[in-house]
Amino acid sequence: MIDTIFIGLSLGSVLLLVALGLAITYGAMGVINMAHGEMVMIGAYTAVLTSLYLGFGLIAAMPVAFLVTALLGLAIEKLVVRRLYGRLLDTLLATWGVAILIQQAVRLSFGLAFFGITVAGLGPGLQNVSLPEWLGGTFSLAGSQISVYRSFIILVSVALAALTWGLMYRTSFGMQLRAIMRNPQMAAACGIDTARINALAFAYGSGLAGVAGVLMAGFKTVFPDMGTPMVVDGFLVVVMGGVGSLIGSILSSAILGQINGLTAAVSNDIIARAIVFAVVIAVIIWRPKGLFSYKGR
Amino acid sequence: MLTLEKVDSFYGRSHILHGLDLAVPGGEITAIVGRNGTGKTTLLKTIMGLTDRIGGRIVLDGRELSAEPTHKRARAGIAYVPQGRQIIPDFTIRENIVMGGFATTGRGRPRSGGIPPLVPKLFPYLMQNLDRPGGVLSGGQQQQLAIARALAAEPSVLLLDEPTEGIQPNIVEEIQNIVVRLNAEEGLTIVLVEQNVAFARSAGHHFAMLEKGRAVASGPIATLTDELIHRHIAV
Ligand SMILES: Nc1ncnc2c1ncn2[C@@H]1O[C@H](COP(=O)(O)OP(=O)(O)O)[C@@H](O)[C@H]1O
Ligand SMILES: [Mg+2]
């Protein structure tokens, strides 16, 4: 039983890292970034490639993946999203296009496939990252065998969620971002450079998704489409938790992770997904603004 | 001195201000009067760069602001107290005030990073409740908070949009006194949008009368005659 709860918690943790970025960008900019899942995928490939070519372990891959995806996120914000603020459908379409572009870039080894060159670690196939010895095993807790790696995922996510909380509530950057989430016009009228803060927030959220990708690479196969379901799941979390609520995102990713883990343990992944959707729909009917909605006036 | 030259302003395709000229002399109070829906709020938003598109020129002390984004106008020294106050209900009173201070970034002096010295002097109540959420305040207290937030920007020009609208009568006079003091004692240039003609007359040095997005009269406050008011405001 405890081991199943740990599986659920670790799923929820990865989900949280993905959802935080979506929650921030949707809350501040009203933008649904369909390419957010591709940040997870790029993070996972960063783990694959740094291990293959540089001999990095998963832990060393995390900061690299954060940087790579944060920079990629920054580029997407500057080149695409910034031009489409306030146009929800246009950003949906445009970022979806960016998502496909990124997937194909990986599938075609950034175009090298056209010249018949194959790059180990890229291409359409499946990739794997092996866990270091000390993360691989299990330990026993109250009579259950708990995966060390699952626990590691939970620890990393808790640490990053705490870091994000600190960033949002204890720094000047966070205060500016929260002000933009509440009232962008007034924030600008108070001298806040909304374009700059939005871009940084976008990059930070993308970086978190990249780290989530590294964590996923440790327990799942890595392939070019792996990010697609992540956007959907991340959005379920944001919608259920309440837009703009950090606590809401944490709680709903924990709940959805548990439901996923528990149902998958007694039946299978497909049923688990169906139940997750059912729960989210039920919550939205019960509280249309999510569990923790911001009470505007 | 803040001047607007032939300013047009738009929300999407709606053309709201039409070739508006306005001179706001430094260190004085300019009252903006006119009927509801005539463009007074839009005028202040236009000065802040919060409408969708403008034409013409906006110049503050020789610096052209027409093409600058909103945050640069705030940093140039213009602070905005909007109609309806727009304080952030789930920010604490302290956070609401500190928020205004981001306008002091990049002015070559250290950010005060906190509560401007004027606030304890003018709004003791806010100082005693710094850690309560802004949303619990009454309308009048929220108005004080919105003014405190604007002062955190250490502005030279203050834009006030109907500061006494919808406020308990016992606080109206207090807010009016503060507006007058900010000008008289702190030397702030004030653009005061005001429906209350008596207050506009007693506080203002100059006035501009708007009708349907055009300035139909302006000048020293003494020239804001009953006849003008009758023609453009009273129905
Ligand atoms: N956000 C907006 N979008 C479109 N039209 C607007 C918007 N805000 C105000 N208006 C229109 O602009 C005109 C002027 O409004 P406003 O500046 O609020 O007037 P006032 O402050 O003098 O009452 C009105 O006709 C109003 O309907
Ligand atoms: Mg108005």
What does this structure look like?
The complex is a heterodimer of chains A (297) and B (235). With 297 residues, chain A is mainly α. Chain A has a domain of 195 residues. In chain A, strands 1-2 form a two-stranded antiparallel ribbon. In chain A, helix 1 packs parallel to helix 6. Chain A is globular, with a radius of gyration of 19 Å. The model of chain A has no long low-confidence stretch (mean pLDDT 90). Chain B is of the alpha/beta class. Chain B has 9 helices and 10 strands. In chain B, strands 6-7-8-3-9-10 form a 6-stranded mixed β-sheet, sandwiched between helices. In chain B, strand 4 and strand 5 form a beta hairpin. In chain B, helix 3 packs parallel to helix 6. The two termini of chain B are 34 Å apart. The chains are: A mainly alpha (297), B alpha/beta (235). Chains A and B meet through helix 7 and helix 8 of A and helix 2 and helix 3 of B. The complex binds adenosine-5'-diphosphate and magnesium ion. The site of magnesium ion has 3 residues of chain B, from helix 1.
As for the number of domains of chain B, it is 1
Count, helices of chain B: 9
Largest sheet of chain B: 6 strands, mixed
Helix and strand run of chain A: HHHHHEEHHHHHHH
Order of helices and strands of chain B: EEEHEEHEHHHHEHEHEEH
Overall pLDDT of chain B: 93
Q: Indicate the percent of residues in helices of chain B.
A: 25-40%
Note the beta-strand portion of chain B.
25-35%
Named CATH topology of chain B: Rossmann fold
Q: What best-fitting shape of chain A do the alpha-carbon axes yield?
A: globular
Mean pLDDT of chain A: 90
Bound molecules: adenosine-5'-diphosphate, magnesium ion
Alpha-beta content class of chain B:
alpha/beta
Short key terms for the protein model shown above:
A: 297 residues, two-stranded antiparallel sheet, globular, B: 235 residues, alpha/beta, Rossmann fold, six-stranded mixed β-sheet, 9 helices, binds adenosine-5'-diphosphate
